[in-house]
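Narrative of activities, Objective 1.

The group set out to show that a structural description can be obtained from nothing but a protein's sequence at a throughput compatible with the screening campaign. Below is one input-output pair from the validation batch, recorded exactly as produced.
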Amino acid sequence: MNLFEQRLWQVKEAPFRPNGIAHTETIFTIGNGLVGVRGAFEEGYPGESATVLAAGVFNHAQGQLVPELPVLPNWLSFRVRVDGETFGLNAGRVIGFERVLDLKTAALRRGVLWLSPNRVTLRVLFERFASLDNPHVMALRVMAQVMSDGAHTLEIVDALDATGNNLMNVDHWSKRTLSADGAVLRFDGTTSQSAYRVAMRAHTSADVGVAWSDVSASRVAAHKASLQVAQYEKVTFTKIVALHTTRDAGDPASAAEQTLKSAVAAGYDALKSAHEAAWSDVWQRMDVVIDGDELAQVAVRFSMYHIMIAVPTQDERVSIGAKTLSGFGYKGHVFWDTELFMLPPLTLSYPERRARC
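Output recorded for this entry:
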């Protein structure tokens, strides 16, 4: 695929636009029908809405008019410190920034060249996806490289962060249990009214030897690692996440443990290849080719992408919400006009499934 053809499959942000956080978080959502993950930054940013939602997991909190989808732990949380300074787009100086949503492979990539307040240059690359091959699996890969001369200290704090609540600070959880055990982070929670049980497991590894220490806090399962690096030395971290609920498993904790074990054994590259193969089948069915209008071509593929990351193929008891799984809008609810937008492209692309629509 040449550069022009690649561009027809990409939604790109460059340079960083700090005033458009809410908009771009929605635009850069990833998902697979079971889970939606807003395009928040791994390192965090002031005013962000780092939101993870699971299809069909509703809860009706006391005092609310209607039920809504409760926010799940932010599994993206991954903070990098270089020589004591924490990497972040609201500190130091952003020298270079590019974020690309690859519609063809449903992967979100971001590259940042950053100058710390103490004048150390750091290059960081991120890639994430929510597997379409196995909707219970999500993955993140982070590469960090110090560009300044000399020896440097990298410190990583990796977490499942359950400190977030829904809008108006609504807390939908009656129980949360979080822990860190070496490379593995665990979350088990129960919703307050609907009594859904949710289990999330994460395993983080590096391509160099690291020792993880537990730095968990209230509502946060976290571990920390520190290592010495030389100029231009690259260190790559891989975080694989499993998610199950009582909508799909009688014992979500055991299911998440087994899914994580299998996913870690397969490895990031194999998981990504299977994910890309699943999306290749989607595009074989759904792609619409427009000649001579690049903007329209990207727009129609972007629309198809956002439909497909919301289609709950794993659960016939769930429909597609008005905001899909890209945020708190409409509380995850479905409205009368859903079929007007969803049925035409899905019926034409997947006629064998029309009886389920």
